[in-house]
Design brief:
Blueprint (H helix, E strand, L loop, with lengths): L5 H11 L3 E5 H18 L3 E6 L6 H9 L3 E4 L2 H9 L7 E3 L6 H10 L2 E4 L2 H14 L3 E8 L13 E2 L4 H12 L2 E7 L5 E3 L13 E3 L5 H22 L5 E3 L11 H15 L5 E4 L3 H4 L3 E12 L5 E5 L15 E4 L7 E7 L8 E8 L6 E5 L19 E5 L2 E6 L4 H7 L6
Parallel strand pairs: 1-19, 2-3, 2-12, 3-4, 4-5, 5-6, 6-7, 6-8, 8-11, 11-12, 14-16
Antiparallel strand pairs: 1-13, 9-10, 13-14, 13-18, 15-18, 16-17, 19-20
Helix pairs in contact: 2-3, 8-9
Bound molecules: pyridoxal-5'-phosphate (PLP).
Pyridoxal-5'-phosphate binds next to helix 10.
């Protein structure tokens, strides 16, 4: 949100407090429409299912669905949010490795597309098929080597070993489950070589976003070839190819479109399966910024500057993975210097950004840009409660989630049976 006028922000902060999340309704809507349009121009049979995990505030989801996106959910909890919003089952893609029988049954009855993650889910779906006395259409999550050093076997069934093909054959032979979708999401985390087991569990896992367009080309080619093989050897028509999420912001999306659609058309033709895509970050990341106020400044031993802001990693947890993009709300003309921006938490790790920025003093406001993905849903009232979230729409601001209070927290502790 580069064009936020500082006077306007001042009055919003005065009214709603600091820190403050600001959401641009217009950017959300434009992102969904542009994402869909860009892919449909090359491959008309494209559907976009927004990945709820990136940000599932109801007012945000409403705009995204109104702009024409399906829902991609990764748990029964997210499935229920989609249904609460009135999303029809037929427009829900149900992913994730922890689906319960209860939610699988609901998803089957309501016509959602279930991408199966593991053999246990297959067993549950066979049971459900027996209980309902009808075969069930399913998708299969595939993992494949696309050139990222991932924990490749963390999700789904492997392509290269033939496991994925074997599972499809098994489902078809048993006659209970019809495989109609192949799903391959390129995860956003890579495992750095070496050190496995030596460090804490996640220490050698790094965020890569966006992945290179070439990886999508490999993924698209591999999955299209698998669909072709399934048709040829098992006579099974794959109706959906789902290439997951991980896409860059709209401004950088162009080259990804042809890398995804090219191999698909080449292998399966213009009128092949529906192409499903599950962007999260690409839709919400640049639609939200955070305004935070400087509380204190200090000089570090190495001579560099440091400031403490009133927003920390409890509300910006993605700062664990990469330094946030910040700018002063008002360009001050003061000297630029390398500055560490700490949050207010009593933690060494509460670092929001390390950046070159104009000298900051108590009371200055800074804008943390592009924080719409994976911060609000992962944020917690750790040491400080969560702040207001305000939606900007048609020149007006309205609170879409109010600031958390002690009472909200105490409410959860009112357990009546103890
Ligand atoms: C299955 C699946 N689809 C889509 C996404 C969304 O990814 P992104 O927000 O990077 O687009 C994720 C993210 O983890 C995912 O696991």
């Amino acid at each position: 949100m580069k064009d936020l006028e500082s006077r306007y922000v001042d009055s919003l902060v005065e009214r709603y407090g600091s820190p403050l999340f600001l959401v641009s309704a217009e950017t959300l809507e434009n992102n969904v429409k542009a994402f869909k349009r860009m892919f449909r121009e090359k491959y008309p049979k494209t559907e976009v299912a927004y990945a709820y995990k990136a940000n599932y505030l109801f007012q945000i989801l409403k705009i995204i669905h109104k702009a024409g996106a399906w829902a991609e959910v990764a748990s029964g909890f997210e499935y229920d949010i989609a249904r609460r919003l009135g999303v029809p089952g037929g427009s829900i893609v149900f992913n994730g490795p922890g689906k319960t029988k209860e939610h699988l049954l609901a998803a089957v009855s309501q016509g959602a597309l279930i991408n199966v993650d593991n053999e246990e889910e297959i067993r549950l779906l066979v049971e459900i098929s027996g209980e309902l006395k009808k075969p069930i259409d399913i998708g299969i999550r595939i993992n494949a080597d696309v050139g990222i050093n991932q924990r490749i076997d963390r999700f789904g069934f492997n392509l290269e070993t033939g496991e994925a093909f074997r599972i499809v054959r098994l489902c078809e032979a048993a006659g209970f489950l019809n495989v109609i979708c192949l799903h391959l999401h390129l995860t956003s985390y890579i495992v750095e070589p070496g050190g496995e087991g030596e460090y804490t569990p996640a220490q050698n896992i790094k965020l890569i976003w966006p992945k290179s367009a070439g990886m999508y080309e490999v993924a698209s080619k591999k999955i299209s070839k698998l669909a072709k093989k399934i048709k040829k050897e098992l006579g099974v028509e794959i109706k959906y190819i789902d290439l997951g999420g991980g896409f860059p912001s709209i401004k950088d999306l162009g080259t990804y479109v042809s890398k995804v659609t090219g191999p698909l058309v080449q292998e399966l033709g213009e009128d092949g399966p529906v192409l499903l895509l599950e962007p999260g970050r690409a839709i919400v990341k640049d639609a939200v910024c955070l305004i935070t106020t400087i509380l204190a400044s200090r000089k570090l031993e190495n001579g560099q500057k440091a400031v403490t802001a009133d927003a920390g990693i409890n509300i910006l947890p993605t700062s664990y993975w990469s330094s946030q993009e910040v700018r002063p709300l008002r360009p001050s003309g003061k000297k630029l210097s390398n500055t560490t921006i700490y949050g207010p938490l009593c933690l060494q790790t509460d670092i929001v950004s390390r950046t070159l920025i104009n000298k900051l003093e108590r009371g200055d406001k800074i804008v943390v840009e592009n924080v719409g993905a994976y911060n609000i849903p992962q944020g917690s009232p750790f040491i400080y409660p969560r702040p207001q979230v305000v939606m900007l729409e048609g020149g007006q601001g309205r609170v879409i989630r109010r600031a958390e209070t002690i009472n909200d927290i105490l409410e959860l502790e009112k357990v009546t049976n103890t």
